[in-house]
Write a structure and sequence with these properties.
two-stranded antiparallel sheet, 105 residues, 1 helix
Length: 105
Amino acid sequence: MSELVVTRLTTSDYVVYAPKWDSLTTFMVSILQNLKNISYEFVASSSQRQEQLEVKLAYVVGNQEVMATKQDVMKYQLEIVITRKDVMSYKLESIMEILKQNSRP
């Protein structure tokens, strides 16, 4: 049987204390500390994962911007080709017109 210490606070209130409770309190405090450490580690790893996802998202957005720029360049190049085609068509029409005029007697 363990030793109990009883302290009278008032005529009707007492405090009961057993020395073995110290080890229980220490055990509970260590459990709480472990839980705090686990939660800190989880929060840290969670924020690290969030940062990694943000980096990946920035990379994806950057790739989309590069693709959009390449698409703009391709549109511009297509416009140049179309313009050259129009110029060639105009020159060909001009040459055909000159040939028609020269071939008339």
